[in-house]
Write the structure tokens for this entry.
Amino acid sequence: MGGENEYDTDFEKSESSDNESEGSSMSYDKNRIEKGLPEMFTQDEISDFGRELGLSKEAHELLASRLKEKNLVEKGVKITVYRDREKHFRSFFSHDKSQDLVYCNNIPGLMNMMKKNIYKPDEWRLFIDSSIRSIKAILLHNTNVLAPIPIAHSTVLTETFRYAEWKHKVSMFFMLF
């Protein structure tokens, strides 16, 4: 035996079943290492690795595919799982088609989905970045320890001035140096 078949055969013989304990899985890993065989990646390890590298969905899928080609993933690892990895967060966002704006409709819920009890409104500030063509709204943590959370985004903007309609007062502030 040689090449790919050796790895496949060894994998089939030593693979722990769903009914066996976690210790059996650890001995499987130890046996592979003792034999000089590469350690296999689990679905979670590939996900964590791709997240640490900041990979896009496409790059994440490519990484998993290449690892699978080299027989470096455990049996049952799904390559296409990264295509819709945002599906758990879709319910927290709405799309206003008239403005082509996507925005978060439940900020506390979104934050709790990411990490329990992390959202305390007084610890976050709103940052708005806009240009002629786009606008983004992002929540930034006051200590910058936690990652920024995007809460609104649009790439199609039209600039309108409707002060008379809304009866807003326009004030000017000039600084002279």
Observations:
- The helical segments are 4-14, 22-34, 43-53, 57-69, 107-114, 163-166.
